[in-house]
Amino acid sequence: MSKIDKSIYRIRKRKRNRAGCCRIIENGMPCKQELYQRGLCTRHSSYFRLHKCIDDFALPTRFKKTTFEVKKKVHKGVCRIIDGGVACRKTVSGRNMCSAHYSYFSKRGLLEKYGQRDQKFIAGKNLSFDAKRKNDLCGLVIDGKPCIKLVNSLGLCRTHYCTLRNLGLIDQFSKPHSRPRVETLAVKKKLKPGRCRIVRNGKDCINLIYLRGVCRACHSMLFRHGCLDDYCLPKANLHNADYTINSKKRIGLCRIKVEGDVCDRKIYSRGLCRKHYSNFWSRGTLEKFAEPDKEENNARR
Questions:
Q1: Listed residue (273, 298, 301) closest to 289, CA to CA
Q2: Per the confidence metrics, is the pTM higher than 0.85?
Q3: What are φ and ψ of residue 253, in 5° steps?
Q4: Centroid of chain to Cα 196
Q5: What are the pLDDT digits (tens) for 190-223?
Q6: Alpha-carbon span 221 to 231, nearest angstrom
Q7: CA neighbor of 130 nearest in space, from 159, 150, 95, 155
Q8: Distance CA 90, CA 109 (A)
């Protein structure tokens, strides 16, 4: 990969930079595209990340090298987190935290460490579950008073479902799962072209193939159970694959052969499909497999 000339790129000053625009000046021309990430547009962000120099031009990342603490005195309706020595003053969204800190901790599995557990929900109260409630109402009964909210999942409303799941009581006060949790999986003996190769609970899956010989639903199910390699086709090793150019020209179709198999995708640019074009461009072998650029030939003439 060729190195870029960093001298042609400059960063705007804060006073001259427009709100919501990219902060890069390229060859003396300020970029007018909208912001995407860290003060850069999508084009400059992907370009600098590809050449591993995004930290030289982009803004520093959020929550970088910050410490989190819990306030000793927590006020009602105010976030309980101290972010980098500064107390957060935003309104509470969930678990006595604001929406920004709640989503940040939930993605990293730190809710139990910094969030407040909802112990008042079960402290000194009698809980029961009425599975025969009608009109799609929540089946949880608290001290003899049934919940009035609508059902979201397993016979519970969204509030009670999330609270009981976080406290580990979801199996005691909810309906059983409609689908069996234990599934029997197998591979079809006779495979149909273009159809999924999985047999779930004795029934053949008839969905179209999404990836590695299975459909989208079976692929996500196998990914959750961590057994993709047991039932799916092996991954195609694109790094060491043999790429050749098809001698027979086909109108509107890609000109590449992968391990002897002809690519049937539509042309994106220079006789290649979008997948092979991006693959060869990122590895610096685009000129080897692509058709000559028409603009360069016209400029030479």
A1: 273
A2: no
A3: -120, 155
A4: 24
A5: 888 778 899 988 888 888 888 888 888 888 888 8
A6: 11
A7: 155
A8: 21
